[in-house]
Amino acid sequence: MKKEVTINVNGTSYTEEVEPRLLLVHFIRENLELTGTHIGCDTSHCGACTILLNGDSVKSCTIFTVQADGAEIATVEGMMQDGKYHPLQEAFKEYHGLQCGFCTPGMLMRAIDFLKHNPDPTEEEIRWGISSNLCRCTGYNNIVIAIEKAAEKMREVEVETVA
Amino acid sequence: MEFTCKTSKEIGGMGHSLKRREDDRFIQGKGNYVDDVKLPGMLYMDIVRSPYAYAKIKSINTEKALAIDGVITVITGKDLEEHNLHWMPTFLSDTQMVLPTDTVMYQAQEVACVIATSRYIAADAVEAVEVDYEPMKPVMDPHKALDPDAPVLRTDKEGKKDNHIYHWENGDREKTEEVFKNADVVVKEQIYLPRIHVASIETCGCVADYQTATKKMTVYMTTQAPHAVRTVVALVAGHVGLSEERIRIISPDLGGGFGGKVPIYPGYIVAITATFLIGKPVKWIEDRTENLQADSFARDYDMTCELAATKEGKIQAFRIKTLADMGYTDGSANPSKYPAGMFSICTGSYDYSTAFAEVDAVYTNKPPGGIAYRCSFRVTEAAHAIERMVDILAQKIGKDPAELRMENFIKKDQFPYKSALGWEYDSGDYHAGLEKAMNMIGYDELRKEQVEKRAKGEYMGIGICTFTEIVGAGPSKDFDILGLKMFDSAEIRVHPTGKAIARFGTKSQGQGHETTYAQIIAEELGIPAEHITIEEGDTDTAPYGLGTYASRSIATAGAAAAIAARKLRDKARKIAAYLLEVSEEDLEWEPGKFSVKGAPEKSKTIQELVFAAYTNYPPGMEGGFEAVHYYDPPNLTFPSGAYICVVDIDGKTGAIKVRRFVAIDDCGNIINPMIVQGQIHGGLTQGIAPAMYEELIYDDEGNILNGSFMDYLVPTAVESPKWETDHVVTPSPHHPLGAKGVAESPTVGAPPAIVNAIVDALSPLGVTHVEIPVTPYKVWKILKEKGVVD
Amino acid sequence: MKVSIDKNFEIAQPVSKVWEYLLDPYKVAECVPGVKLTEKISETEYKGDVGLKLGPVNASFNGVITYAKVDEVAREIHLVGKGVDKKGKGSVEMALEMKLQESGNVTMVNTTMNVTVIGVMAQFGSRLISDVSDHIFKQFVENFQTLLAGKEIDDQDKQIHGGAVAGTVVKSITSKLTSGVKNIFSKKDKKEENENE
Question: Which CATH number characterizes residue B510's domain?
Fold first, then answer.
């Protein structure tokens, strides 16, 4: 019954035999022991399990591992590059965009995808953009600010890189 | 507002907005939550739950489940009964089934537990367990629960002849009656605060690990009160050989708590029993649906409120009669002398001397609970009652609600103030708070705008709430849970090189204790906060304490940290006197060093003094540099707030838009302004949640109709307004740091402000009250009833 | 939870024929999607299997269908169906009251259906119960008309229609899955840009 899958996660390729019903979030958390991706509900509402699948943010509790065969996945553990925080990570810390930290990885993953499509968003757009993800601690104020500030920084870096 | 700091930025004591120490691991996905714990040979537990709210269990057939490859065992109530583990106490000394032997009392109650080698197999086996029920008509309405012909639900209690749990009252019934009889104006309203659920994004669960060789039970558990849990487990399971020294509760990173992780749920106990019987680690993680359907609820208070006043609007007396639906057992985690918690804070921020409050609690076929939802015990209910009633009074006599409040506030110079129901409010400046809120939001202009809008037939409302909280339980004289006094603790250990570790009896769930506690010690000892490691939640290493809830951490453990640090500073002074060869009185302290008065060049830094405590201390002195303190607060603390909310209501659809929300909080002296502000933001969103979105709904058949995130509406960033916050500060006179506690105030204060705004918007239609959650549909129905829409 | 549905419909058949069919439990069961009679207990009681899908919940019931009232003179019939989920996930009770009236060659059927659902289906499907009940009822009426017209009921119509919504969701997810590999952390989709060039 098991099926072989090859999935690239944060730049490393994994080949494993999995049950067809194994949820991607369980594959990530339990088979690969990348526990930064969390589970907060069973109805695809909370977004704690959000990852990037081929660059798009998806809720990994709603996808079977076999559906991700051949895909490229990014989780929160892959955000730091060369030992440096991603601007979003930095901004979440700087502007107090997290409290218990449970929704944070999902929020960060969602924010990456959101800013990719909308690099210069308004506050309202950010709020709608992260409405797929629930946070029970922060009241969202500082998450919104953190994303605004990170977007600013990411635009600057972009300008520098181009120059 | 600007905060003055006594310490430098490098030391990072009180008043500095230090970035949080805990964030680095969280933003890298390296937090360590219970479900992240993976032990060798670990088994998984899943739970068979009852579809009926009230039914006899005729039989449980586990044969098919046991036949599934990978299923180790199925545990039922009968199995637990053999070890006398099928019942356990609640924190409020009621009793609760671990697993039922013959009757289920609420829908989603645990019926049997499957242990298997994987999560998936356990879930398969849950499907394969066959339970034959004989359903009975459940008692769902708390009012009907008291009918003489209502079935008695708790037949397990010998001699129990009805569903009444307790009657609690406070105040002078006769005198209150008298004042009401003679009052110019009496307003009365029935106010119901429905069942809600904390729904922390991390659900509950544990990994229980019993080592047969060492006979040691380690439980990684989502608990806000690890020490109390250890004691309860020892009391419940002592007879099977689990004595307290062999039990270690570890509460790792918690993904939110809000009160929901205070109770001890049956799943924990079965997992502990299972590992004990099997000798392998057992993990149990509930899913969201189980969490919403079976874990402790909050609120469910049906309150009849009355306010008596003079015709000018001077409040004279308050009276409140409450029916509390507790579900099938009283699962509150209140101090034992306070079955209705701190409900007698219901007299509010106003100066009058007569009040009477009573609560009757009943059993129904709903899940147990009665815990808080980010508030000190029953304070939200109390604040909602008085703050709604003050507005209803204002409406009745035609006075501006801000003016009415200003005229009735307890004045700044009246503190400490003895309230009508016996509390001693420690400090406050309610006039300053409301004034600041009014200025910040532009109250007078808003009222002008409202007049213009009303003339155009538009619905705009301005709502005020000026609440007083009561937190920081509590003084040992009156406060205990299961007999355990509600002190809390701090232990500071400073290493020879001047770096420290401190441990506490509390447990952060996102409040940032690792940062703020370090700041308190930095403030008192002058050791930079970044050199202080904070640990909580491991009962083998941390000093005893009753945990984090009811905004008690800073009020109790925070105070303990300050006093333990001061003990160390005293020791440092003695060492300094010895090293500098002066008397202690000749020394002067500034954060980080002692110097000789008048000769500042002669000084010793705290790091030098700590080093000396290991290497060169005065003869006769104990070596080392450690202190512990168990802080017993002399009084509770009384944070307060002045909140103003502006709403716009669509006269066609009933849609409610919170246009602005200003929150002025007085939580005493502030340790980390950034964290305090974050706590207030979060609390405000958990205030708008029950005010406009959340409610657990049950039907007459006992079904929960919104037991998943599909239907239970936790606000997203879209529903949550942009919060505006500021402070007034009146330090608590009895707290060593002048702090009071925060984070729950906004959850207490936001709902009445929002409802008051909505009612204010609809008041031209003669509306005086709307029950929460105020949904667009509810408003639309009102608009329809009043003929505004067809 | 309880759902009450009142519906009136016309059948282009004489009342005597409609009445005759309604008295035959096997014919009635054939028209209710997901229902199969398995055993006759007595003249008025029958055992059957009921399969039901409600949103995320699949339930399979051991049911008993009873003719609670048969009044030939008034042309009134009361059917009660009670089902307990085979795995103990809950129960369903349905009381169906039908009254027939002849008008010309057409039979008017006035019905009231009360459905009480307890357990998992109510917990997860509360928002759907009303719609699904309505849907099943509609299918029943269509099937009943087909049967009365002497035609065979399509096998598909013996199942509960639904899942159209779920189908769309699955489709949108898989369409995302099939899109090409992208540079995951880049702010702009560089690969896509290259492809566009």
Answer: 3.30.365.10
